[in-house]
Design brief:
Elements lengths: L2 H25 L6 H17 L1
Length: 51
C-alpha cells in the first residue's frame, strides 16, 4: 500500500468515527440530557413541596 493510499484509507476510516463522536457529544450535552432535566424537575418539585 502506498503512503498516499494509506492516508486516504485512514481519512475514510476516521471520518465516520469523528461523526459518531460528534453525535455522542451532542446527545450527552448537559443542557439536553434527560438526566439533567430530571434533576431540574426534582429540585422544582422539592421547592414546591417545601412551600
Amino acid at each position: 500500500m502506498t503512503p498516499a493510499a494509506r492516508e486516504a484509507q485512514l481519512v475514510r476510516d476516521t471520518a465516520p468515527v469523528m461523526r459518531l463522536l460528534e453525535t455522542a457529544l451532542v446527545l450527552n450535552n448537559e443542557e439536553t440530557c434527560p438526566a439533567a432535566e430530571l434533576k431540574k424537575l426534582q429540585a422544582k418539585n422539592d421547592k414546591l413541596q417545601a412551600e
